[in-house]
Amino acid sequence: MNEKEHWDKIAPSYDEEIFDVFYNDKDRRLTHYFKKYGNKSHMAIDFGCGTGKALRYLSPLFREVLAVDISRECLSETSRRGYRNVVTKRKDLSGRRITLPQSDFVFCCNVIMLPEPEKNNVMFRNVQRAMRPKATALLVVPSLDSMLFAAWRMVDWYKKEGVRPGDIPASELAYFSGKKTDLLQGIIRIDGVPTKHYSESELAVVLRRAGLAITALEKLTYNWNTEFSSPPAWMEDPYPWDWLIECKKLSPS
């Protein structure tokens, strides 16, 4: 898939088509971290900003925000938001030779989830290179554990209605319609698009390889209506989640 063309096409209807993490953040954990690291003398980078949904939170808290994305059309939508301390820059964040200024805070929300593992690894390294020595990165990535748990919940739901697992409609299992090797690598089809999901243990490895140390790892939880159109009342916690990761730069060995 051509990422630039894909996001240029989606830009005008971005708010309707793309899952809104900020709206669905059940416990308002993103707001907590923004307030924790906000500093009017610091610079932040929104790494893969889309149409700039994070800027309503970042712009008031930082001296300057650099909003970076592959899509010129998304950046045009970002500029229309009118934040005076926000500068936009078009970059392919999976590029090995991109240059970004070092910042005090990097936010990257559901960007590093391409079906090509090496491109994701490059993006993690680019996040690390955009951080000053004492900077913090806050990353949100899809959870493989959550996707498998949601699938288990769905099977359990069908069982309660008298449907055996083998009789569940194939359309309900479309998430897992790829190759076995895709599933082993955490690549799940979301609306037909192969999307990388991460396990907790995998994150520990890939972030360390990128020169990042995890200082906090928690669940960014959502309600069940983000997974099912009409979830039953008995379907309560645990809730589905993305991984929310606080990182620092690893000290040179």
Provide structural commentary.
- The chain has 253 residues and is α/β, with parallel strands linked by helices.
- It has a single domain, classed as Vaccinia Virus protein VP39 (Rossmann fold).
- The protein has 10 helices and 9 strands.
- A 7-stranded mixed β-sheet has the order 3-2-1-4-5-9-8, sandwiched between helices. Strands 6-7 form a two-stranded antiparallel ribbon.
- The protein is globular and about 60 Å long.
- The mean pLDDT is 94.
Keywords, separated by commas or semicolons:
single chain, seven-stranded mixed beta sheet, two-stranded antiparallel ribbon
Q: What is the topology, as strand order, of the major beta sheet?
A: 3-2-1-4-5-9-8
Low-confidence stretches: none
Q: Quick one: biggest sheet?
A: 7 strands, mixed
N-to-C CA distance: 38 Å
Secondary-structure map with pairings?
Layout: H1 3-10, H2 14-17, H3 21-24, H4 29-37, E1 39-47, H5 55-58, E2 62-69, H6 72-79, E3 86-90, E4 103-109, H7 117-129, E5 131-142, H8 144-160, H9 180-184, E6 187-190, E7 193-196, H10 200-209, E8 212-221, E9 241-249
